[in-house]
Amino acid sequence: MSELHKLLLNRVRQQEKALGIEPLAEESESDTDLELGSERQSSLNGFPPSSLPTKISPLIPPAVFPKSGSSSSSPTSSYFSTNDKIKSNYESTVNEIFPKQEKYASFQTYYHPPSNTSAPIFICHHGAGSSAMTFAMLTKYLQENYDENNKDATPGVFTFDARGHGKSEGATDFSLSALTEDFTYIVNEFVKRHNASSSSIYFLGHSLGGSVLTNYLSNPSEDAIKVSGLIMLDIVEETAVKSLVAMPNFIRKRPKIFDSYQRAIDWHLKETHLLHNEESAKVSVPDLLLAHESHLSWITNLSLTQPYWETWFKGLSSNFVTCGQGAAKLLILAGHENLDTDLIIGQMQGKYQLIVFNNNPNAGHFIHEDIPSHIAVSLLDFVRRNDSPEDYMKKELGFLPKWGGKINKS
C-alpha cells in the first residue's frame, strides 16, 4: 500500500471516530493490498459473492438462476392473492411517503415537501436499472431523524424515474449527456412548480445517478440552480469502469420473468444479495417490474444501455472533486474502494467529506436501502455542518472555536 493511501486511511479513521461511526478494522498491509487490488466482479446493482476474499462490494453480483421448482418460469396458484397483498402494501407505502406525485412531461416524479422553507430539500437521482423508490425508506428515515426537538419539522425529498425506468416513458438514448439534459429539465421544472429557488438544495445520487449529478454541476447551464451540496452514494470511477466488463453476463443470466413479487424480492435478498433490507425491498423491487397476466417482467431493458456504459463514469473522480463552485461534497461508500489519485488527494485537501461503512455486514452497493437510518443520520449531519456551521459546532463542541472550522467548499 502506498504512503498516500496509508495517509488517507488514517484520515478516514479519524473522521469516522469524530462522527461516532465504528472505526475501520485494523488490517495488515498485505491484507489491505489484497483487498484494494481485487477487481470488483460485478455491476451497477451488486454485491460480492461469498467466495471472494474481499470486503469490496462489486457493482454486479454473480448471476444466479432460481432453483428448479421455484423458478420465475413456474407460475403458482397463489400468484394473484400474493401479488395483490404485496402490491397493495407497496402502493400504500409509496403514497404515504410521497404525497405529491406528478408527471413532468414523460417523467414520473415523487415529492415529500419540507415542513417549512428553512428545511433543506434533497433532490435524488437513482442508478441504472433502479427507480425512484430506491430512496423510499431513506426518505422515511430522513423525516424521523431531522429535528429531535421538533418532530413536526421535516426535510423535503424529491426523486423521479429516469428515462426507461420505473413509470417514466422508455427511450433508446441512455448517454450521460441525454440523462443530464433530462435532469436539467426536471430540476428546473421542480423549482418552478414548487417555488424552491430559495431553499437549501442538496443533490443525492446513487451509482450512475451520482455521475449524472456531477456532470450537471461540471457543465452548468445559464439557468442552473444554486446547490448547497452534492452527495454520491457508493460510486468510484475506477471500480465502476472495471465492473462493466461483467455486465453482459449478468444481464444474460438473470431471470427474465418472475411468477410473483415475492419471488422477485427473494431473488434480490436471498439469491443474489443485491439487497439486505426486506423493508426497503418490498417497496423498491415491485417498482422495477411490469405485471402481466401470469408473470412479472423487468421494466428496464439494461441491454439498451450497453452502447453508453464506457462514457457513464469517464472523468467522474476529477469532476466530483472540482465541480460545483461553492457546493460542499460528501462521498459515502459501503466498503473501501481502490480510490484513484484524484479522490485521494481531493479528500486529503478537504475538498469533500468521506464516510465508509466498512464494518457493517448489512451494507452493500444499495447502501441507502440496506441501512437507511445510518445514511439518513449521515446526510442530516452533513447538512447541519454546511447550512449552520456555527450552530453545529456550538452544539457538538459546546463552544464556538475562534480558529474557524468551516468546510472547504471550493
Automatic annotation (TrEMBL):
<comment type="function">
    <text>Demethylates proteins that have been reversibly carboxymethylated.</text>
</comment>
<feature type="active site">
    <location>
        <position position="234"/>
    </location>
</feature>
<keyword id="KW-0719">Serine esterase</keyword>
<feature type="compositionally biased region" description="Acidic residues">
    <location>
        <begin position="24"/>
        <end position="36"/>
    </location>
</feature>
<dbReference type="InterPro" id="IPR000073">
    <property type="entry name" value="AB_hydrolase_1"/>
</dbReference>
<feature type="domain" description="AB hydrolase-1">
    <location>
        <begin position="123"/>
        <end position="370"/>
    </location>
</feature>
<dbReference type="InterPro" id="IPR029058">
    <property type="entry name" value="AB_hydrolase_fold"/>
</dbReference>
<keyword id="KW-0378">Hydrolase</keyword>
<dbReference type="InterPro" id="IPR016812">
    <property type="entry name" value="PPase_methylesterase_euk"/>
</dbReference>
<feature type="active site">
    <location>
        <position position="207"/>
    </location>
</feature>
<dbReference type="Pfam" id="PF12697">
    <property type="entry name" value="Abhydrolase_6"/>
</dbReference>
<comment type="similarity">
    <text>Belongs to the AB hydrolase superfamily.</text>
</comment>
<dbReference type="GO" id="GO:0051723">
    <property type="term" value="F:protein methylesterase activity"/>
</dbReference>
<protein>
    <recommendedName>
        <fullName>Protein phosphatase methylesterase 1</fullName>
        <ecNumber>3.1.1.-</ecNumber>
    </recommendedName>
</protein>
<feature type="region of interest" description="Disordered">
    <location>
        <begin position="18"/>
        <end position="55"/>
    </location>
</feature>
<feature type="active site">
    <location>
        <position position="365"/>
    </location>
</feature>
